[in-house]
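The methods section describes the discrete structure representation at length, but only in general terms. The central task, working out the structure tokens from the amino acid sequence alone, is never made concrete. Nothing conveys this as quickly as seeing an actual entry. For illustration, here is how one protein appears when written out as sequence plus structure tokens:
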Amino acid sequence: MDTKHLTVDGYVDALPTPGPRGTTDFELIVRPTDAETVSPDAPDTVVVCSTGDPRITELLLNGIQLGDLVRVAGILVQPDDAATPARLTVDALEILAAAPIPVPGELVFDRYGAYVVIFNADRDSVPVFLASGEWVGEAASAEAIGPLIDAYENGGPR
């Protein structure tokens, strides 16, 4: 497995989604760095990113929209198997420019006090985080959010 530290500027291509063990996943579209000299047909690169940093997760859940230009830094891991995509584990994120026009997405973020939930029209389950980015759990449906929060507050499964 090959790793290296990388800083890259890119546009948010997919809204952040919860991953395993409190991580958050998102994708960036990265233009070639020498866009002025590269052919206009040169492909953009999709960079698959994840983070477990609660501060970055909070920013991703509360301050990012599709099309925002961001700078991320972290460790790029290229697996030995060339068919497996590289993944950038982000340890720093900076918003460079907001998207010119907010893009409505299929996801709806809502807050219940200190909790953030993500409704997705294509799924019944509802991911639940603390506003700080800490993973709470996934409710089986919208009706199960309350019991999940109650269990979390009473030291239940996490």
